[in-house]
Specification:
CATH superfamily of the largest domain: Umud Fragment, subunit A
Order of helices and strands: HHHHEHEEEEEEEE
Number of domains: 2
Distance between the termini: 19 Å
Number of helices: 5
Strand content: 15-25%
Strand order of the largest sheet: 2-1-3-4-9-5-6-7-8
Helix content: 10-25%
CATH class of the largest domain: Mainly Beta
Structural class: alpha+beta
Mean pLDDT: 82
Shape: globular
Low-confidence stretches: 77-93
CATH topology of the largest domain: Umud Fragment, subunit A
Largest sheet: 9 strands, mixed
CATH architecture of the largest domain: Ribbon
Length: 222
C-alpha cells in the first residue's frame, strides 16, 4: 500500500541494504544530509511531509535500484497485474489506466470532470492507497518539453478532483484539446497562471472558461 509510512519505510530499507543511515543515503544522492531524517518527516504543525519525486529519483540513480525494487521494499507491496481487456479499468489497489500525452489531447478519453473514461487506455501497475478516491491514472511523458524535471518516457500519476494549491505540479487540458504539465502559480475565479517545468518554454495563463479540467500530479515514475 502506498502511504506516507510505507514510502519512508522503503527509503529506510534501501539505506539499510546499502549499509548506510538515512543521512548517508541522502548524502550519496547529493542531497542535504538531513533530507531523510525522522525529524523532517513531519512539519512543525504535525502535517506529513513526503519525499519529493526528485529526491527519490536521485536516490534510485545513486544506488542503482529500479522503481520496481524500491516498491518491493514497501510493506505489503502489491504484485503487478496486467492483461486486462481494452477499456476495462482495473481496481485502483493494483493497477491504473495509462495514456500518452499526445493521446490525452484527443476526445473520448476523459469525462467532463477530467476522470478517465472510454476505451483505448493501457494499464500500468501502481499500488494506490485504498483511502484514495477512484480515478487516479497515469500520463506518459513524450518529448523534451518538460526537461529537466520530467524526461521522455516518465509516467506522471494524476489524481482528478484532488485539492490543488499554489506550487503544486498539475496537468491541465484546454477546451481546444491542448494538454500540458505545469506548476500552478496563481488561480483566481477568472484566470489561472502556470509556470513551465522547462525554462526554455514560456509560462502560460488562461481564462478559466477556456480550461476543460485541471488535476494534480501526485507522483512521478522516473
Amino acid at each position: 500500500m502506498l502511504s506516507h509510512e510505507s514510502i519512508w519505510k522503503a527509503l529506510d530499507t534501501l539505506a539499510e541494504r546499502h549499509d548506510m543511515t538515512a543521512s548517508g543515503l541522502a548524502r550519496r544522492a547529493g542531497l542535504d544530509p538531513t533530507s531523510f531524517n525522522k525529524s523532517k518527516r513531519h512539519g512543525p504543525d504535525g502535517r506529513l511531509r513526503w519525499p519529493s519525486t526528485e529526491s527519490l529519483a536521485k536516490v534510485l540513480e545513486a544506488t542503482g535500484v529500479s522503481l520496481d525494487q524500491f516498491m518491493s521494499y514497501m510493506p505489503q507491496a502489491v504484485t503487478p497485474r496486467t492483461g486486462l481487456p481494452e477499456g476495462s479499468f482495473p481496481p485502483q489497489a493494483s493497477a491504473i489506466p495509462l495514456l500518452g500525452f499526445a493521446q490525452a489531447g484527443a476526445g473520448g478519453f476523459f469525462d467532463d470532470g477530467g476522470f478517465p473514461a472510454g476505451q483505448g487506455w493501457d494499464v500500468v501497475d501502481f499500488p494506490t492507497d485504498p483511502g484514495r478516491k477512484a480515478g487516479v491514472y497515469a500520463l506518459e511523458v513524450q518529448g523534451d518539453s518538460m526537461l529537466p524535471l520530467y524526461r521522455d518516457g516518465d509516467r506522471l500519476i494524476v489524481e482528478p478532483g484532488a485539492q490543488i494549491r499554489r506550487g503544486d505540479r498539475v496537468v491541465l487540458k484546454t477546451r481546444e484539446g491542448e494538454v500540458m504539465a505545469k506548476v500552478l502559480l496563481r488561480q483566481s475565479a477568472r484566470t489561472i497562471e502556470l509556470g513551465s517545468l522547462n525554462p526554455s518554454h514560456p509560462n502560460r495563463s488562461f481564462e478559466m472558461a477556456d480550461v476543460e479540467w485541471i488535476a494534480r500530479i501526485i507522483w512521478a515514475s522516473q
